Structure formats: C-alpha cells, structure tokens
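Q: Got a minute? One more chain.
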Amino acid sequence: MKEINQELDYYERFWKRELKGKSPFHGLPDWRENLKKRLDFFKEVIKGKILDAGCGEGHFVMTISQLPNVEEVYGVDISKRIISECNKKAKKNKFYSKIKFHTGSVTNLPFMDKSFDSVFAFEIVEHVVDTEKMFYEFN
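A: Always. Here it is, folded:
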C-alpha cells in the first residue's frame, strides 16, 4: 500500500506540472506521431471493449473510440487529476458515449475479470514497481 501511495503522489504532482505546461515533457512533438504509428499498427485488430491501462491524457482512448469495430473504450490512470481532465475532454468528443475513464492502479484494476477484448499499456511498464502483478491483472 505504501508503494501505491508513493506512486499516486508522484503522478498527482507530475500531472499538476504537465497540465500547467511546466513539465520537461510538455509539448514534445512526437506523441502525435507515436499515436499515429500505434493506430496504424493496431487498427485492423482493435474491436469490442478496449482498456488503455495507464492512459495518461487519454489521447489513445479518444482516438480509437472513432474506430467502427470499437464498442467501448476505457482509460484507467492512477492520477485523479488527469482522469478529471480526460473526462472534461471526452465530453467534447463526438464518440463520448463509447468513452469511460476511471481512476485506479494498473496493479489493481477496478474492473471484473475478463471485462475487455484487448488491453493496451503504452509506456508504463518502466513506471510500475510490481510489473508481475500488473501483467497478472492484464491477463
């Protein structure tokens, strides 16, 4: 529990700075190109109910919500601050009815087993202390 609280505190502080444009990563141009590459790679197989674990600002969630074979897209992140921001952005998305964001840890997902057809987790493994538990949750 101590590790989760430390992780939560770190990401609340990170997103506070990032959303104000004060993070060293804020405004990097490559996230859109990375998103396009991911979508091009996966778009043919993405279907059904999808989870983006460690969704951050929700770019992947909102982008794949537009795919015709996607029924629902869930984003989960440990930061309440960023999930609040994601929910605000999602309301402006024309596919809003397919999008849901939740606060939670990737090592203890707030969903029933076998809830998703696919789970995506981009650039989060290096941020998680107990990766074995994370992958167990994904499975």
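A: Strands lie at 48-53, 70-77, 99-103, 118-120.
Q: Perfect, thanks.
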